[in-house]
């Protein structure tokens, strides 16, 4: 470990600007693999991000994040296994049965869904979407969490069918949120349609669909839809459109002319969702200006 005895010594070596560069690089990686926080970004002598020390810092930071992610997944699996025992479920199949069984109490079904999410059991995604579609608030929210934790888009079309269909409002909203968090790009036309359905959709539903267009914000069809939503009657939808525009990187982005003109017009928009979400201020930041 860079010729030092422990993580504390590796941390001190990394911060020592007078030490040999090669040893400092090894210390940065050791901090990432074994330390609590990874290599410090305040260490002296690391001014160039592409220098050997800069690269070692990036790699050490990446290693630390991967280790934390692995530790988090391990904790989730341990917690899921404990919940399975509390449920009296001897296997994943038992947890699936409890989650699907409408005669079970909501609490037991929610716990079973939490088990499937904690285990990241990909084969359960289809049935979790079916349970989500029931529209029971806590259970539907738990299904959304489990599906996004598992991270599989395998049954995304079923989620899109819920958004299109005659389902409970909360189920439709959670389906939109799940598609958004899964970065399901095939949902772009659906999000555009929902965001523009002033006479059919509830404001919060349109707001969510609008912001979800951030996933496809570099596409021309999405940019045209966002340009229209910047003039929506709803303040929250207008702000959501600005949030979606903020997903175009790097900032300030080279917006197409029609979208830039729409953003410039928002500089004179006096509306705000609240004191922290002011339309003119966010439009100015996107354009690289100050109000």
Task: Describe, in plain words, how this protein is organized in 3D.
The chain is mainly α. Among the domains are: 1-72; 183-291. Helices cover 63% and strands 2% of the residues. It is built from 15 helices and 2 strands. The protein has a two-stranded antiparallel sheet with strand order 1-2. A hairpin with a 2-residue loop joins strand 1 (272-274) and strand 2 (277-278).
Which segments are poorly predicted (pLDDT under 50) over 5 or more consecutive residues?
Answer: none
**Please, how many helices?**
15
Q: How far is the first residue's CA from the last residue's CA? A: 51 Å
Q: What global shape is seen?
A: flat
Side-by-side strand order of the widest sheet: 1-2
Order of helices and strands: HHHHHHHHHHHHHHEEH
Please give the largest β-sheet.
2 strands, antiparallel
- Roughly how many Å is the radius of gyration? 24 Å
Strand content range: under 5%
The total of beta strands comes to: 2
Structural class: mainly alpha
Give the mean pLDDT: 91
State the share of residues found in helices, binned by percent. Answer: 55-70%
Give me some keywords for this one.
mainly alpha, 2 strands, 291 residues, flat, 63% helix, two-stranded antiparallel ribbon
Short description:
This protein has 291 residues and is mainly alpha-helical. The protein is 63% helix and 2% strand.
Tell me the layout of helices and strands:
Elements: H1 7-15, H2 21-34, H3 52-87, H4 92-100, H5 106-118, H6 125-132, H7 137-150, H8 156-164, H9 169-181, H10 188-196, H11 203-212, H12 220-229, H13 235-245, H14 257-266, E1 272-274, E2 277-278, H15 279-286
Antiparallel strand pairs: 1-2
């Amino acid at each position: 470990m860079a010729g030092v005895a422990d993580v504390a010594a590796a941390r001190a070596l990394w911060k020592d600007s007078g030490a040999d560069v090669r040893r400092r690089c090894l210390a940065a990686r050791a901090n990432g693999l074994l330390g609590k926080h990874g290599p410090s970004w305040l260490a002296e002598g690391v001014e160039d991000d592409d220098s050997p020390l800069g690269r070692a810092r990036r790699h050490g930071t990446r290693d630390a994040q991967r280790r934390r992610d692995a530790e988090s997944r391990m904790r989730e699996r341990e917690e899921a296994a404990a919940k399975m025992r509390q449920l009296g479920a001897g296997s994943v199949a038992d947890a699936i049965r409890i989650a699907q069984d409408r005669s079970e109490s909501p609490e037991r079904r929610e716990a079973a869904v939490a088990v499937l999410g904690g285990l990241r059991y990909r084969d359960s995604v289809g049935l979790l979407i079916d349970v989500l579609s029931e529209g029971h608030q806590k259970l539907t929210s738990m299904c959304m969490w489990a599906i996004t934790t598992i991270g599989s888009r395998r049954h995304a079309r079923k989620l899109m069918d819920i958004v299109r269909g005659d389902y409970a409002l909360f189920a439709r909203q959670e389906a939109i949120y799940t598609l958004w968090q899964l970065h399901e790009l095939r949902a772009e036309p659906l999000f555009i349609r929902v965001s523009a359905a002033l006479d059919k959709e509830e404001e919060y539903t349109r707001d969510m669909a609008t912001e979800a267009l951030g996933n496809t914000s570099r596409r021309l069809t999405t940019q045209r839809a966002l340009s229209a939503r910047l003039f929506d009657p709803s303040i929250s939808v207008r702000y959501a459109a600005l949030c979606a525009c903020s997903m175009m990187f790097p900032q300030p982005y080279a917006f197409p002319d029609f979208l830039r003109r729409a953003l410039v017009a928002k500089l004179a928009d006096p509306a705000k969702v609240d004191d922290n979400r002011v339309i003119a201020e966010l439009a100015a930041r996107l354009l690289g200006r100050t109000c």
